[in-house]
Amino acid sequence: MGLKQAPRAWYSKIESYFTEEKFQKCPHEYTFFIKKYSEKNMLIVSLYVDDLIFTGSNEGMFEEFKTSMKSKFSMIDLGKMRFFLGVEVKQFSEGIFICQQKYVKELLLRFKMDQCNKVCSPMVPGNKLIRDENGKFVDATNYRQMTGCLMYLLATRPDLTFYICLVARYMERPTEIHLAAIKIIMRYLKGTMDLGIWYKRNEKKKLVGWSDSDYAGDLDDRKSTSGYVYMLGSSAISWSSKKQAIVTLSTTEAEFVAAASCACQGIWLRRILEELGQSQKCTVIKCDNSSSIKLSKNPVMHGRCKHIDVRYHFLRFNKGRCGRAQPLQHNGATC
Q1: pTM tops 0.85, yes or no
Q2: pLDDT class for 38, splitting at 50, 70, 90?
Q3: Where is the signal peptide (predicted)?
């Protein structure tokens, strides 16, 4: 299984199996397979290479599926899910809690930060990272290893998304100030390693997006950073922080670009939820910039915004079809 074509060969084989067993492949996520027994009864399988997790309407479906899989493949049944790809899963009658506490402990031990002092914030307030060509360079390999390990935490820690993506920008020529920023994140982790996401059972599943951006926050190239989070009920299911590809000329434009990237993810999430029988009504995207909200609704090209690339204006096109922007008194989102 070490050949370069092995992953594709394996996927073709497992896909053929699911097709024979009357599963439907999700057209919007190719590692997602659904078998519908009736309108309300279904078995859902999620595939990550050769690791599978599945859920469904009743235990009978599970036993039937496991028996079928074992007859075709060499399988190990690990029972009720407690770990998956390094993520801890704690299941209760009230819901499911996911975290990476064990991973954080191993990470701190690996980089000799297990005895560090805790801090209450992952970044010094007001601190802005820049390329430091005159600073003392540090071991780039070690810096990249630390950054890569931190990035794996983003599976369950949306609160760290902006900070980890920020330090990842300086992996080419890191200096002492960048290494210090990473160590502050690790000190923050020391005191918050038990944080995670709680998914409540029997909660109203309404999809809501929160969009935000800074303006010209990168002091090296003056590009802004887009950030969003999608909540299903009271729980986060998707989040991102990413530097924008263009230099925006105003806060309105920066917020508009951020809202457009948020809308892209929202369209995909709505399609996935529909496949799961959780069709959504009009999805709201929360935004704290009134000018960008007006720009998303009004097709008039004003002098200060007519230069905005047409690809970002699809937010207007999808308004009313799948969502709408809504103003906030206070935006809890962060980029």
Answers
A1: yes
A2: confident
A3: none
